[in-house]
Specification:
Blueprint (H helix, E strand, L loop, with lengths): L1 H12 L11 E4 L8 H9 L7 E5 L6 H14 L7 E3 L25 H7 L2 E6 L4 H8 L8 H11 L3 E5 L1 H4 L4 E5 L2 H5 L9 E4 L7 E4 L8 H10 L6 E5 L3 E5 L5 E6 L3 E5 L4 E2 L7 E9 L4 E3 L5 E2 L5 E2 L23 H10 L6 E8 L2 E8 L5 E6 L5 E16 L9
Parallel strand pairs: 1-5, 2-3, 2-4, 4-5, 8-9
Antiparallel strand pairs: 1-10, 6-7, 9-12, 10-11, 11-15, 12-14, 13-14, 14-21, 15-16, 17-20, 18-19, 19-21, 20-21
Length: about 400
């Protein structure tokens, strides 16, 4: 409890009033494919003029050299000069693929003059995936202060350098950092799964909480619990799908989405939670932003890309949607539920989806409100997606009893 209280204090202290940084952030939800030109180009193009240098930091990876080389190859493929790229010798684990190098010895380099020199003129800094706690364990002191290496990164960011990262490199971006957990473990007591864990992040993104691998790993419930436990110090969470980037503009007032998936926007500013053993959370507001959409980072509203059209009055579906859940039910991704089943459905004001483990479960209850908005359209590549804002979202605990139906 003391750790969580300290974390909330540190996050709150970093909210409005902190100096505005100058650079972009390119935050990827993991699973970034080498051919995702839009994301790599956004990272490269955000370098300030006269600072083409790129530093790759493989601190999170268990295969530091291999993961850094893969990033370097992808950046070169998308237009970077190999001569401009440096791989930081900052890591915690030995890469078993390199016989002559023990990368675990790189942990002491956070004070190395040679490593600090690599950052001096860098216009771009990239964190690889792996375990986010390895990054913070290396770049923060035991007292939670910045190491010289992290201070140097902040100085470059304040001078306009872009900072990017994927997976673990995304999780570190906010002031609080989700370290572990799944939705069922966070929402249900006992052995339903792994409870959510929180620790201090690196606070490049000041006012929002990041989660990654979001849709692929069904992390909506864990993000809701994390926001509640932070007691509104970070009221808006951003869950980023794989192969998808949240590109945060300087000043951190807005962000644009690039890539194949969605960014889920979860606003807990008006949410309340029960004090009982089973999580009951009401008053959440959820939305979705896809490729080309823009998110207002202060209020969580989504501005659709120009090619998406409002669904109100021209809903594609007209059908009753019974409460359901499980593998036998189609359309269980969030876009299917609050897009097709709710906002793009003239016959639906509310949609309920169930999940359970043993005899305990949760109901996700989504509803239209006066402020709810949705748009749909295809991007230039022909991929269809929704833009959604302002959907009511409650999480209710349920008990489950399953009995087979006997043949008569």
């Amino acid at each position: 409890m003391r750790l969580l209280t300290a974390l909330i204090f540190l996050v709150a202290a970093a909210l409005p009033g902190a100096a505005l940084a100058e650079g972009h952030l390119v935050i990827v939800g993991g699973g970034l494919k080498a051919e995702n030109a839009a994301v790599y180009r956004a990272f490269l193009d955000a370098r300030p003029e006269g600072a083409p240098g790129i530093v790759i930091i493989p601190a999170a990876s268990g295969e530091a050299s291999a993961s850094a080389e893969a990033v370097r190859d992808a950046l070169v493929k998308h237009g970077a000069s190999a001569a401009d790229i440096a791989i930081a010798q900052i890591a915690m684990k030995d890469d078993p693929g390199t016989r002559t190098v023990d990368e675990s010895r790189w942990a002491r380099n956070v004070e190395s003059e040679e490593e600090l020199a690599r950052l001096e003129n860098a216009g771009a800094i990239w964190f690889t995936g792996g375990d986010q706690s390895r990054i913070t364990g290396l770049l923060l002191t035991k007292d939670g202060e910045d190491t010289p290496y992290l201070s140097a990164i902040r100085a470059r960011y304040a001078e306009g350098a872009v900072i990017g990262g994927t997976s673990a490199g995304a999780a570190i971006m906010s002031g609080a950092m989700i370290t572990q957990g799944d939705s069922m473990g966070a929402l249900l007591p006992g052995d339903a799964g792994e409870d959510v864990g929180l620790a201090r992040g690196l606070r490049f993104l000041r006012n929002n909480l990041i989660d990654q691998h979001f849709g692929e790993r069904a992390r909506l419930g864990r993000l809701a619990v994390a926001l509640i436990r932070l007691k509104k110090a970070l009221p808006i969470g951003l869950g980023i799908d794989e192969n998808t980037a949240l590109v945060v503009a300087p000043g951190q007032r807005s962000a644009t989405i690039l890539g194949a998936g969605y960014v889920t926007v979860l606003n807990a500013a008006q949410a309340t939670a029960s004090s009982g053993e089973h999580a009951r959370i009401t008053g959440l507001v959820v939305g979705l932003a896809g490729n080309g959409d823009e998110i207002d980072l202060a209020d969580g509203s989504v501005k659709p890309a120009w090619y998406r059209k409002d669904t109100k009055g021209r809903e594609y579906f007209e059908r009753a949607v019974p409460p359901a859940g499980g593998m036998a039910v189609p359309g269980t991704m969030l876009a299917d539920v609050i897009g097709e089943a709710l906002m793009d459905n003239a016959d639906a004001d509310e949609v309920v989806r169930y999940s359970f483990s043993g005899d305990l479960g949760v109901a996700y209850r989504f509803g239209q409100a006066e402020s709810s908005r949705a748009a749909w359209g295809r991007d230039e590549a022909g991929k269809a997606a929704y833009s959604i804002s302002g959907v009511r979202f409650d999480i209710e605990p349920i008990s489950v009893s399953i009995q087979p139906i006997e043949d008569q």
